[in-house]
Amino acid sequence: MLGIRSYVSPLRSMARGLATVDKSVPVTRLHDAKRKSLEEVLQPTPAKTNVTVVGEYDEVMDIAGVPEEHMEPRTARIFKPAREATQSGWNNTKAWKIELDNRERWENPLMGWASTGDPLSNISMNMDFASKEDAINFCVKNRWSYEVDEPHERHIKPKAYGSNFSWKARTRVSTK
């Protein structure tokens, strides 16, 4: 009768051979494992100390890669965008945006396009902030002066459907 051998992949047999040949690599097998107590696993944590960070904003701007002429004298306008003029809802009016002051532009003589050397000219297209404070912190971190335009909140006057049919002389509409 022929013996049936199970197939062992060459990669697995090589890994098994390497693990048993090298004695410098510690191997813990299941029967060698020692059960630890809860006190050994949950060691006391060291006391936490406060770390003071000095000049964190300076370091952020130094590694940002923005040329120096575009760093300091920037003025940002922080605002909530107005609703679109079309018949759209209030969807994109919740976030705060930043718009930087415009730098010099010139007309490209070859194509006639407007060119600029300002790497931050399109920042207002992509940057949205959840709150006004987040936008202010971003401006402080980048050493920009800022102006905040407070949003004009809409006031909804509560109305009842029955007021359309009330019998007041001012609100009555003739149907003839």
TrEMBL record:
Membrane topology: Peripheral membrane protein
Gene Ontology CC: one annotated term: mitochondrial inner membrane
Span of the signal peptide: none
Subcellular localization(s) per the UniProt record: Mitochondrion inner membrane
A Pfam family assignment: NDUS4
InterPro entries assigned: NADH_UbQ_FeS_4_mit-like (IPR006885), NDUFS4-like_sf (IPR038532)
Any one GO biological process: electron transport chain
Keywords, sorted A to Z: Electron transport, Membrane, Mitochondrion, Mitochondrion inner membrane, Respiratory chain, Transit peptide, Transport
Family: Belongs to the complex I NDUFS4 subunit family.
Function: Accessory subunit of the mitochondrial membrane respiratory chain NADH dehydrogenase (Complex I), that is believed not to be involved in catalysis. Complex I functions in the transfer of electrons from NADH to the respiratory chain. The immediate electron acceptor for the enzyme is believed to be ubiquinone.
Name of the molecule in the record: NADH dehydrogenase [ubiquinone] iron-sulfur protein 4, mitochondrial
Organism: Parascaris univalens (Nematode worm)
